[in-house]
Amino acid sequence: MTFDLNEAVEKALNEVRALDGRDPLPDKGFHATSGAIPFYLHIVRPNGEFVEINLEEGGWMTTYAEWMRGRARWYLMSKPSPEVPARPWLAVEVQEGDQPYYTARHIVRVKGINAGAQITVYGIGAKRASGHTDRMWILPNGLICSGEDVDTLGDAVIDALTN
What we know:
Layout: H1 5-19, E1 39-44, E2 50-53, H2 60-63, E3 72-78, E4 87-94, E5 99-108, E6 118-127, E7 133-138, E8 144-146, H3 149-162
Antiparallel strand pairs: 1-2, 1-3, 3-4, 5-6, 6-7, 7-8
């Protein structure tokens, strides 16, 4: 079986379009006002099976351990609100042998006028079978960045939010 990148991209776009405009988790109580984490994971396998994971659920990595390996598409979705439907913000294509992950990082201003000011950034990524690691982040102002840029860009967001 060969992997067709154009086909994969088109399929991902169609999945995102299908998610747009609906609350995919009406029975699980995921809403923008519930909890401190404004996101949840939506993971789709190539056969169409999917799971939606509340990142505030204690032990979720153990509960969903079988979803942490194997080919899948990971979406970091914003929780829906009455005014705004759930929306995919980040996506990672996970191949066999990759190790996907979700993470949150606190960026804190250590010194200066705004010492102690902080933001929380959220990310998903994958350590590839080749050893390379892909990282994507979303900052509180909606800015999306990759890799280690999150530290300097996060510092700039702290400046913008506190000045």
